[in-house]
Amino acid sequence: MSDSIFNFKNYPIVFIGSGMSKRYLENSPTWPELLEEYWNKIDNNGQGFYNYLSEIKDKYKEKQNDPDLNHKIYSDAATYIEKNSMDYLIQGKYH
Question: What torsion, rounded to 10 degrees, do the Cα atoms 16, 67, 49, 39 define?
Answer without folding.
Answer: 20
